[in-house]
Design goal:
single chain; alpha+beta; Beta-Lactamase; six-stranded antiparallel beta sheet; 6 strands; 25% strand; globular
Length: 157
């Protein structure tokens, strides 16, 4: 099994674990609880994740939600950063080197690469799942596919 296949398999197992947990919660669990659970599981099961969290779109602001890792920026500066670009493009963004990304917001200088997945329900962007690594080029297509599938599971899709 290649490392790419092993990573894809790890994402499938995590997605299955989350689906099982959410089935136990039933319809009573709100989105914030589901996101917090997903963030905790991902952060502790993915060795290349340095910071794992959610930024919620509140009005025009991206406000930190559930996260694991070092201290986060509470509110991201408007009009800048990978998370804002993800909201505007409504698509996953993989950044191999955050220092090469124009207007990157450095909440922690140890962050070297990043992947951001939009959280969209009924056509509305609710926020983003944001993952940083302290290694350059830590994320790729397998991470994008796995995290997009997990966001869909969190949303109950």
């Amino acid at each position: 099994m290649t490392s790419r296949d092993a990573l894809a398999d790890r994402y499938r197992r995590i997605d299955g674990q989350l689906a099982g947990l959410f089935a136990k919660y039933g319809a009573a669990a709100d989105l914030e609880a589901r996101l917090a659970t997903a963030v905790a599981v991902l952060h502790h099961k993915m060795p290349h994740f340095f910071w794992t969290g959610v930024y919620r779109l509140v009005g025009d602001d991206l406000v930190v939600g559930p996260y694991q890792g070092p201290l986060a920026c509470a509110v991201l500066e408007r009009g800048k950063g990978v998370c804002r670009a993800c909201v505007e493009r409504r698509e996953t963004i993989v950044v191999p080197d955050v220092h090469a990304f124009a207007d990157h917001i450095a909440c922690d200088p140890r962050s070297r690469s990043e992947i951001v997945v939009p959280i969209i329900r009924d056509g509305a962007v609710l926020g983003v799942l944001d993952v940083d690594s302290d290694r350059p080029e830590a994320f790729g297509a397998v991470d994008a596919e796995g995290l997009e599938r997990i966001v869909a599971t969190v949303l109950g899709a």
